[in-house]
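Chapter summary example: a protein plus adenosine monophosphate.
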Amino acid sequence: MTARYEDLHAQSLADPTGFWADAARAVDWAVPPSTILDDSAKPFYRWFTDGRLNMCWNAVDRHVAAGRGDQAALIHDSPVTGTKRTITYADLLDQVSRFGGVLRDAGVAKGDRVIIYMPMVPEAAVAMLACARIGAIHSVVFGGFAPHELATRINDAQPKVIVSASCGIEGSRVIAYKPMLDAAIEHASHKPSRCILFQRPQQIATLLPGRDVVWDAAMADAAPVECEMVEATHPLYILYTSGTTGQPKGVVRDTGGYAVALKWTMDHFYGIRPGEVFWTASDVGWVVGHSYIVYGPLLQGCTSVVYEGKPVGTPDAGAFWRVIAEHKAVALFTAPTAFRAIKREDPQGTKIKDYDLSSLRVLFLAGERSDPDTLQWAESNLQVPVIDHWWQTETGWPIAGNPMGLGLFPVKYGSTAKPLPGWDIRVLAADGQPVRAGDIGAIVARLPLPPGTLPTLWNADDRFVKSYLADYPGYYQTSDAGFIDSDGYIFVMARTDDIINVAGHRLSTGAMEEVLSGHPDVAECAVIGVADSLKGQLPFGLIVLKNGVTRSHAEIIADVIAKVRDEIGPVAAFKQAIVVDRLPKTRSGKILRGTMQKIADSEQWRMPATIDDPIILEEIKAAFREAGYAQLPQNEQKLPAGQAN
Ligand code: COA
Ligand code: AMP
């Protein structure tokens, strides 16, 4: 079976235009593309430039036209509210057509931006699809981000309208969204002209007259609208993701390339057939939610489960098994951290036996490195293939994985298997030369990237080139380090930048440092990611106080923790910080974050030859020990002069 993969992969690299022209036939076009790849403005590439289509048509209307109107499109399963709701494709068509009318009435036209700041309710998907229907560009902001982060995105995207909800529910806590929305708009220099509020019974929000309208009332008055066909290169959405600074990167997604790539993956990578139930336990605020809660499954005519709950505590570690059994999901896609949470509460997997999981064919894991223990636990308890696949917000769909739809090849634990068709993956040394099989280096993808991947960053072409294309000319730099073994299997080991991965969520330590530095008592600081058995990594702050500060360390630490929660949001999970006298640096002043992280995690580390004062590392190690880290004996090696980690 793997021969099929090998053929397709080889074909996709030898003849990308032929390969993707074939794939594009699975999508409905108003005007089929005659130009498949436009490389006239290298290093910017565009796919299907003269094609015209509409994403909402492909995800909704076409299925109703083909007789799927009565099939469930979305199932909202919400243990936190004790409700379940099924929305058929016909219902969805009605809702997106009318919500498109609501947006048009609010003055939204093709190309205008709409920010969506919502919990896991189907209305979030309706809002996204309605934007796509009228050619508006949506930007979904994850609900766990604080008003300051929302304000940054409002200023960058300049939305005409914001769609939000009165509240979200986190376990048993009702989280009021409206005050956060109001605070964000107050902070932002750009003001939306209209906010559309989905009122939830758990908490009714107070409206600001003249600006706010209620979802239901607006829908009742709205006239349905038809799909507006757009150029394949027209942006479908902007999704902000952490960069190395506090200014997030606005990843742009085109319409045509994305539709083609997602449809291809549903068939050939995930191996899901139309009509089947596909469940991605993530959030619409993340790329995984965009691609595989909303667009991918709907393009494929599947039923997608919109789950508003956690893997544990809603009510217990059997929650995932209940959802699979009840809705007969054929596939579950989530982050390894969710399985670590389940395993911690139910190590023997006893709750699995309470449910009929015979519908389940496969489990997909992504978002962070899958530790072999967790993967094997899932395999042995669920008795289905467990597929670790690697991708990024920027890529929109998997770069590498074991292709369920093409026939699996043998699993190598710790590897995300082989590159998908369209991806020419190499590992390069710092000088740009390829490394030998098995040697670690920067993982890069040869240009052009396949369809559906980011064509640029919103209003930031220069930043796009500088962040991704400048260091290794001719390649896209993933900012992941790893190796490819002699069988062609990819092992993704770590980020090469200041990004950490907390419970499958991508966070910038640089952004946290900016918040800490803003505290009046803090002279300088560093934030590193330390290993955590549940969330993979957790942020850990080290702060040096200004001379003459007399407040207690405990007070200042409590302040900086609250400050990160207020300014970035609870999702940052920033709960640990220590005060130190000084930070270890190289002679040129670079803080040795990598070395500190290795010391905290009790990993082998190397004394950088360029360190300014080695004694400081001893002080830092002692401080980590006191905080419960750096408990195991470690080896130290001297690095060749000039290198620092
Ligand atoms: N709105 C408001 N707050 C939110 C939120 C949202 N949408 N999502 C998370 N938060 C809050 C949480 O309540 C928590 O707050 P707390 O510090 O007051 O407890 C904080 O942000 C951190 O959230 P999280 O890291 O998700 O931790 P958790 O303890 O609530 O749950 C897991 C841990 C592992 C169960 C959960 O992260 C999980 O299921 N992850 C796997 C699925 C996933 O989300 N993958 C994403 C990419 S595929
Ligand atoms: P995000 O943009 O939030 O999807 O995060 C992307 C980053 O998560 C990648 O650059 C990797 O560092 C990490 N990541 C995602 N999936 C995997 C995986 N399967 N294995 C290892 N790391 C992963």
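Key point: The mean pLDDT is 95.
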